[in-house]
Each structure stands twice: as structure tokens, then as C-alpha cells.
Amino acid sequence: MANEKIILGIDPGTTIMGFGVIKVVNKKMQFVQMNELLLQKYKDPYTKLKLIFERTIELIDTYHPDEIAIEAPFFGKNVQSMLKLGRAQGVAMAAGLSRQIPITEYLPKKIKMAVTGSGNASKEQVAKMLKSMLGLKTLPKNLDSTDGLAAAVCHFYNSGRIEVGKSYTGWDSFVKQNSPPTPKGGVKNTTVINLRKKKK
Predict the structure, then answer these.
(1) Stretch (H or E) spanning 11
(2) Which of 36, 67, 105, 144 is flagged as catalytic?
(3) pTM for this entry
(4) Taking the chain (200 residues) in consecutive chunks of 10 residues, what is each chunk's mean pLDDT?
(5) Catalytic annotation on 4?
């Protein structure tokens, strides 16, 4: 019996969310699907997050991925953009975690390195390499979907390696890895102070 695995790759964003799906059969990749969720027309940021969550759940229910690879937010100068991107990523991750699907984050440079051999490759170079690797006939107009596909391919190449990125197998794992460290000496007893003034 063939050893099969489905990997869903996600490039989160509040303007466009790109995604790609590959099937791994006996350690060989097969292209399944790539597409994007367009969010430009929605002005309300909470509506965008809702749609990202729902679309991710829909992808999970359609393709039944065994693992999810997601592009981690990169550090930029625009703090507001980073916060928006982090929210989009968090919502997509929450959808996967709610279905108990293992999730691994990869930095953009690591994804580019895995696909092209260069961490400084452009979106166009990544897309062209994916086209060659997976035998794609055409490339999409927007390259967010190929970025999502690249995350899945990166995960395929890094599967089995130790410390490939942050991985989560469920809510407990996510909370454990993202909780603040315990102070040295453990948590000390705290004193509760009543700030209400006593009535005379």
C-alpha cells in the first residue's frame, strides 16, 4: 500500500490569503490545488478574520490534510502591518488546531531556501521553480497562492528534520510553546490589594 500524506500550505494575509495543497505518495510530491481568498473588498477587519477562519476550515474539510505548513510573519518596519498579518496567521492556525491538525511555521527565507536554494529569491523565482518542480501549466496572476504552495513544498523537504520551525499538534502544544517563561525561583505568592477606600 502506498504511503500517502496531504500537506496544506498557507500564506496568510488580510488582503489576500494564498494556499496550496500537495499530496506526497511514497516520498514524491504531486500537485493537488492552489488558489487564493481575496479580501480587498471587505473593509471590516473582523469580517476578514472570520472569512479566513471559515475558508481554512473549508479547505481542511475538502482536502483532509495530515499536516499544515504556514508562513510565519516577517519582521518589518510597519508595526500595524505586522499586527494584521499576525492576526491573519493566528486565525488560520486556530482553524487547524480546532481540527487537531499538526501545524508548522516557517520563516519566509526558509521557504524560499527550500524551494529555490536562495533565501533572497523573489516571488517570481519561487513561482517559476514550483512550476518546474510540480509540472504546473500556468502560474496565477497573484503569487500569493504560489507562496502558500511553497510553504507546503518547504514542509515536504523538511519533514523528519529536527527543529525545522515551530510545530504545534493542538491547543495544549500551542499554549505551552507560546507561554511566557516562569520567573526564576518559581511563581511567588502575590498579595491582593483592595483599592477601594473604606467608608468612614
Answers:
(1) strand 4-11
(2) 144
(3) 0.78
(4) 87 94 94 95 95 97 97 76 89 96 95 95 95 93 93 90 48 53 44 42
(5) no
